Prior knowledge:
This protein is an alpha+beta fold. It has nine helices and 14 strands.
Amino acid sequence: MTDDRDPSVSTADGFPSGSGGHDPEVLRQRALDALLTARARTATLTDSVDDGELTAQHSPLMSPLVWDLAHIGNQEEQWLLRAVGGREALRPEIDGLYDAFEHPRAARPSLPLLAPAEARTYASDVRGRALDILEGAPLHEGGRPLERAGFAFGMIAQHEQQHDETMLITHQLRTGPVALTAPAPPAPTDADALPAEVLVPGGPFTMGTSAEPWALDNERPAHRREVAAFHLDAAPVTCGAYRRFIEDGGYTDPRWWAPEGWDLVREHDLAAPLFWHRDAGQWLRRRFGVTEPVPDDEPVLHVSWYEADAYARWAGRRLPTEAEWEKAARHDPATGRSLRYPWGDTDPTPEQANLGQRHLRPARAGAYPAGRAPSGAGQLIGDVWEWTSSDFLPYPGFVAFPYREYSDVFFGPGHKVLRGGSFAVDQVACRGTFRNWDLPVRRQIFSGFRTARDA
């Protein structure tokens, strides 16, 4: 076992060079910026539709948008006002209504939820008090674990951004007039020069983190992993490549499918990624209320783990393991260090990754050359969540913090790991060590994949 003080790991303290490290005032400003950015995005997602759309359930897989809005406020109240600030509870009677474990999503519309105006007022009142607490919180290294390095404030900013992504999924599932618009992402400048795959050398590397101050419990601790040499797609699998799988009978041939996946195909008559349909000999898709031709050179989106796995088998390849993915994304063979991001230790810029709902689609394969890893692989951060072959399991030495329900209760073979983030993820909730997970049947999420093969 090692931690991030090992010489093989980036010596960055979890923040980019020149940021002030763990200086309390720098941390305070970073936490403030992260909280304000998240709330501005929440407002965009909830103010863009009327009250009827906010209270409707657009899919039994998702909560009404108004539930997410009040849940964001309730989590902030519980962790920042009560746990950190020691304040008296504002609305203790609603804790149960907004407990994600107490009420499944399909049942939430039947609950006596706060109305839109009341939910907005509640979230705003909580935020005002939370910012007062942030202003006086010590945030120093010797402080309480929740306050140390501003962890609780970073955790809440990440929580809100995760729900913003969930609400964006709900926007994709809803029908009706277009509510959200955004410019197209930048086109690749050297896509033709990008190789089909890259070779990631074998050997050890440091996986996870013990130094990133706002890393969540399942990212910890840093530990050594041995990974054999392998080849990895230089970019995520595109819609055009996936279309060839469809046209070769991929959804009608059980040879490519795990048994449970084949059952899913037959039970739901699957024939293409979610939101695709064929019309007049052309594949079309629905994207945030707009119907458009499926772009061949864009990473495929809205595929389940079973679909990704079947494509990989059909292509004579496989999905990468989680450790392989992280080594390709973080390991710098020239220095032996594990980087915070594929491009280095600095926070993402718009030139390096497609994040933060800046664009409402993945960028074309080969975009963001400034964001490529030392391995040569690109678009490892942003664009699409990437399915891996790995089950969601704890790292050696894992300790649940600050509550078991974030990670611990999900560990096991029932959930598969996704890595990298999508265009719907904000940078505060996305880094080289960040781990996402979901059921292998999930298709509504912003998921894609890339494939690997043994060297």
